[in-house]
């Protein structure tokens, strides 16, 4: 049997125990063209969902889970397809439009380890439809901890297992119905080897002595509450740095809010309603009427009179606001100031930060993992800006724990960071 004839089931490869993860293990990757049992029929009926849930509850081992969204096409980040695979149950494709409540499936898998790639991206949309893992294994994060240079799913499957996944449908409009067969094939293949990848990465992490670290990270992801709503999301409008005056900022706020309301009502991506560039242009120009607005980039001849008038109404609302109701130039700072200003504001803090960064960089390199996974840059900044009164490893460990660092991170970094806190600014 040649490599080209081997199937995914025949050829589940592992990283050799002595090979570093950034060394190629396979020569030419084998294209993975079809799921083992063919493309599953899409489940879009609650009765069929019950049968799928029962089949997966009767399966064994971890369950591979993935979700497809329609980012850039629809409003929000809801799931439009959920893919699963488990030993003994095979693969399943679930349509959350036809089955908006997947809690029966989530309950069936409550005691099972879920395998996801980049879990933090999919968990919010999965929770919305009733799927909440108690335990998980994140293959992207595992790859980072193991020191892989490229941690995308395709790159990891190719590097670790020797197969090439199709890459052509990741950014399509998954709200399309019916979903084309090539898209469904792509979706099914995304979970085809996820458990195999998990097993190989677990072995590699264990070989490197990092498996306990990974389990702590996975536990933190599973236990993390949903993030709170972002305050003043309009401030993240692309090009906002050009807007300096408070009246102009008010225009951005009014246009952004109007756009968001329309996008939500129409269930389309806000960028399809009005571009960020157009919002910023209107804010900078402060047009007096719809005719002046129509002359600006993003408000061209294709826009109807009614649309122009609704956007001009938003501009007019901002123009009419009293000074006291105009937005302030910046958001309230809840943490340390930008590091570039530390040398002037607090030279001692700048010296501490420089020493801490150097220590973290050296340790991360010696452990072959990204600095941000060893300890987050925000945690280091907060520690150095407001260090504990007693700069001992124990006091630093307590501070790091208060900022959400995991025990393995604290054990490795607390002694180094305690030493960095004694750094003094140059004469």
Automatic annotation (TrEMBL):
<dbReference type="GO" id="GO:0000166">
    <property type="term" value="F:nucleotide binding"/>
</dbReference>
<feature type="region of interest" description="Disordered">
    <location>
        <begin position="1"/>
        <end position="21"/>
    </location>
</feature>
<dbReference type="InterPro" id="IPR002562">
    <property type="entry name" value="3'-5'_exonuclease_dom"/>
</dbReference>
<dbReference type="InterPro" id="IPR041605">
    <property type="entry name" value="Exo_C"/>
</dbReference>
<dbReference type="GO" id="GO:0003676">
    <property type="term" value="F:nucleic acid binding"/>
</dbReference>
<dbReference type="InterPro" id="IPR012337">
    <property type="entry name" value="RNaseH-like_sf"/>
</dbReference>
<dbReference type="GO" id="GO:0008408">
    <property type="term" value="F:3'-5' exonuclease activity"/>
</dbReference>
<dbReference type="Pfam" id="PF00570">
    <property type="entry name" value="HRDC"/>
</dbReference>
<dbReference type="InterPro" id="IPR051086">
    <property type="entry name" value="RNase_D-like"/>
</dbReference>
<dbReference type="InterPro" id="IPR010997">
    <property type="entry name" value="HRDC-like_sf"/>
</dbReference>
<feature type="region of interest" description="Disordered">
    <location>
        <begin position="221"/>
        <end position="243"/>
    </location>
</feature>
<feature type="region of interest" description="Disordered">
    <location>
        <begin position="323"/>
        <end position="345"/>
    </location>
</feature>
<dbReference type="Pfam" id="PF01612">
    <property type="entry name" value="DNA_pol_A_exo1"/>
</dbReference>
<dbReference type="InterPro" id="IPR002121">
    <property type="entry name" value="HRDC_dom"/>
</dbReference>
<dbReference type="InterPro" id="IPR044876">
    <property type="entry name" value="HRDC_dom_sf"/>
</dbReference>
<protein>
    <submittedName>
        <fullName>Ribonuclease D</fullName>
    </submittedName>
</protein>
<dbReference type="Pfam" id="PF18305">
    <property type="entry name" value="DNA_pol_A_exoN"/>
</dbReference>
<dbReference type="GO" id="GO:0006139">
    <property type="term" value="P:nucleobase-containing compound metabolic process"/>
</dbReference>
<feature type="domain" description="HRDC">
    <location>
        <begin position="245"/>
        <end position="325"/>
    </location>
</feature>
<dbReference type="InterPro" id="IPR036397">
    <property type="entry name" value="RNaseH_sf"/>
</dbReference>
